[in-house]
Amino acid sequence: MPDGMWLVSLAPVKKTPPAGAAAGQPGGRQRRGAQPSATAPDAGFNTIVIKGLIFADKATDKSIPQFRDRLRESPLFGPNTEILLWPQPVQNDFARSFTLEIEVKEEERSQ
Prior knowledge:
With 111 residues, the chain is an alpha+beta fold. The protein has helices at residues 63-73, 106-109, and strands at residues 5-13, 47-55, 82-85, 95-103.
């Protein structure tokens, strides 16, 4: 984590696939009369939403994207880790806020 950055909240989230998506079916559609997938849905979470701040005097334009990229490279998190919110600072702000959605890798959730 970059110098001057801290996390304010972490929330596990169960992100559902888009409407009409079926596991194992390209395009997310299931053929008429086909049996649903034999795998039971995971009752846990598959993403973590974090909110954080970084001191304005420590932040650069690359601070938050670099943090996101380091999370993507971690063996615990997936490549779909994204920045959801990263507003431009106002002149007198002492810190910049951000929100990230972190994909948790499947094999890590099952342990």
